[in-house]
Amino acid sequence: xxxDIIYLDKxxxxxxxxxxxxxxxxxxxxxxxxxxxxxxxxxxLIGHSIEKREIYKIQLGEGTKKIMIWSQMHGNETTGxxxxxxxxxxxxxxNPFTNFLKKKLNISYIPILNPDGxxxxxxxxxxxxxxxxxxxxxxxxxxxxxxxxxxxxTPDILFNLHDQKSIYNVGDTHNPAVLSFLAPSExxxxxxxxxxxxxxxxxxxxxxxxxIILPGMIGRYYDKFYPTATGDNLQRMGYPCVLFEAGYxxxxxKKIKVRKYNALAILSGLFYLANEENIEQDYRxxxxxxxxxKNIIDLIYKNVKIRKKGMEFYVDIGIMYEEKYNxxxxxxxxxxxxxxxxxxxxxxxxxxxxxxxKNYIGKYGKTYPNIGECANFKxx
Length: 380
Ligand SMILES: [Zn+2]
Known about the structure:
Layout: H1 5-15, H2 27-35, E1 42-48, E2 54-60, E3 65-71, H3 79-91, H4 96-104, E4 105-110, H5 115-119, H6 141-153, E5 157-163, E6 168-170, E7 179-182, H7 194-213, E8 218-220, H8 230-236, E9 241-246, H9 256-274, E10 292-294, E11 296-308, E12 311-326, E13 331-342, E14 348-354, E15 360-361, E16 378-379
Parallel strand pairs: 3-4, 3-5, 5-9, 7-8, 11-14
Antiparallel strand pairs: 1-2, 2-4, 6-10, 7-9, 11-12, 12-13, 15-16
Helix pairs in contact: 1-9, 3-9, 7-9
The structure holds zinc ion (ZN).
């Protein structure tokens, strides 16, 4: 069996879950999607969130290698969930590739570990705990559900699906980090343990394949040890854990392209696990994947004239779009926020406006910007 990323890239539009068209994916949307899998997969109710929303586990495949995947432990990070429903739809097709995966693997998937957060497009749970920092204290019911299921299933591998902010670029290039991966550290020294090597080998296979269709846009996440983080602790407990981060493709705020690459990355990882013994491995390759930098801004206004106390200054103004959920329209609004002022030549940018020294006129005639304000100004 070979892995043909070019074919999957072309075929994706045919197999993807066409009924999901929005980035908003709440518990109510999950229930609609789960209906379709009632007779195709084993679906278990594995617990409830603080606000008593159900948390489910979907299981498919008859293989011996056990994988546990979960998504949306951060309620507003929906790309992994949506990509997984693309993957599930594909896995339910009857073809040699999907049959091979189902024969070799036993896949368990927990969609939306944080359903209360998902309902209002919020990162944390109903009492504002960041589930990804609750691995030691285990205060939230949601993280206990995850850990209990991992302990009873004893998976060989874990996939932890997240979204990352748009500020990340790949290495020292202007390319946005469309996908990033991490083999989490198990200690402060960031030692290269056997479990980390296993995780690195999976990431290496995914990166080598995905970069054929996404050249220069895949990064490696910084591996600082976070003592209370989920991945770091699970890895230390002996469960190799791949962190997937779905970023932003250029001018793709709806994440339609990122969703596809995320789905294909998951399929690459599954293929690796199904075929591990036949794939050449060298964990050291991991360190040649460029590390992410935090050096890209959504929009830069270049050379704007601002005035304060009778003085004039010529500055660049950097803007990032903040995502805000509008509960009444059920849409994501992109609020432009001023995040930096001055010489911003060291930043890469997604879009640029050359102001040529035009005057800054803000709200109520204010002649200068402040960091943190909404970018609500004219240039005249
Ligand atoms: Zn996250």
